[in-house]
Design goal:
Helices cover about 30% and strands about 15% of the residues. It has a single domain, classed as Alkaline Phosphatase, subunit A (3-Layer(aba) Sandwich). Helix 1 crosses helix 8 and helix 2 packs antiparallel against helix 3. The longest helix has 14 residues. By secondary structure, it is α/β, with parallel strands linked by helices.
């Protein structure tokens, strides 16, 4: 645990997990020094692509209840039931950087300051670039190699990057890691997460990207005695809607804070075999991040 609260940057590649390959060396380099895991999602209802984008984002922020209200799945008049991230996480100041109009509306609903990714790109003349990374880090108070303790800055910045933009995340990771050299102020205070999802999935994906490992060799008479994995539970109640395939992939890094596992590439196959944290529900992700920011108690072990 750090001796000061961290600032968090989350790079979310929406639908990009399928497209990362061996050429994305910066992403894999981050995974090799990070703590990696899967984030399990629930089964999806029939939905449009815009609805999927917002629904999966809502799970990352444990805001699925707000999504059901916003999408009209709950009766009108229930808007007052929506709690902002600041209310839920001890005054957390958070921003969402995106060019998605659907996410813009939802982000504002749950209390996020929403910034346009395209505008941040224009400020840095070209994208991706070191200047763009500098702009993002400055939102967290990292300037000139220092961490400014100014109340107007953000504790958390969430960058949503859509499909066909693996190169954008690749470049951002490379430049951010160059700025956050081990032993620097930025490295000690920056909690960096890269999250990659599979986007829209089909039944064929169930056999290609399965989270569950077949329980070979177990006598069927005793199969019911095998305990449920923790990601399938919420408190003492089972999560019966868990999708056992196409989880999100996540790598989290903070110098001298996060534990390093044996993962050397951010891929489904490698995470399934070597990740240290295995599987957690997607709606617990924000709780893990908020803990590093001293805005929530520890989730899990």
């Amino acid at each position: 645990m750090a001796d000061k609260a961290s600032r968090a940057l989350v790079l979310y590649g929406d639908g990009l997990a399928r497209f990362v390959d061996s050429s994305n060396t910066h992403i894999h380099s981050l995974a090799s020094v990070a703590s990696c895991s899967f984030l399990s999602l629930p089964h999806a209802p029939p939905e449009t692509e815009h609805e999927r984008i917002v629904r999966e984002f809502s799970h990352l922020l444990d805001a699925s209840e707000a999504y059901t209200i916003a999408s009209g799945l709950k009766s009108k008049g229930s808007e007052h039931e929506i709690s902002t991230l600041s209310q839920r996480f001890m005054g957390l100041k958070a921003a969402l950087v995106t060019d998605s109009s659907s996410l813009t509306s939802f982000g504002k609903l749950i209390g996020l300051d929403v910034l346009q990714l395209s505008e941040i790109c224009q400020k840095s003349d070209s994208f991706p670039s070191d200047a763009t990374s500098t702009e993002l880090l400055s939102l967290l108070g990292f300037e000139g190699g220092k961490c400014l303790d100014v109340s107007l800055l953000y504790d958390l910045v969430f960058v949503h990057i859509g499909v066909d933009n693996v190169g954008m995340i690749e470049s951002l990771v490379g430049s951010i890691m160059k700025m956050a050299q081990p032993g620097s102020v930025i490295a000690s205070r920056l909690h960096l997460s890269v999250v990659l999802s599979y986007g829209s999935v089909t039944d064929k994906d169930a056999s290609v990207f399965p989270v569950k490992t077949p329980q070979e060799g177990i006598n069927h008479a005793f199969a019911g005695l095998v305990p449920r994995q923790s990601y399938t539970m919420r408190g003492e109640k089972p999560r019966d809607d868990i999708r056992d395939y196409c989880p999100m992939l996540v790598a989290q890094w903070q110098d001298a804070v996060t534990r390093r596992d044996l993962v050397d590439t951010l891929s489904f196959k490698t995470l399934k075999k070597l990740s240290g944290n295995l599987v957690i529900p997607t709606d617990r992700f924000i709780h893990e991040v908020a803990f590093k920011l001293w805005k929530a108690p520890k989730y899990g072990a």
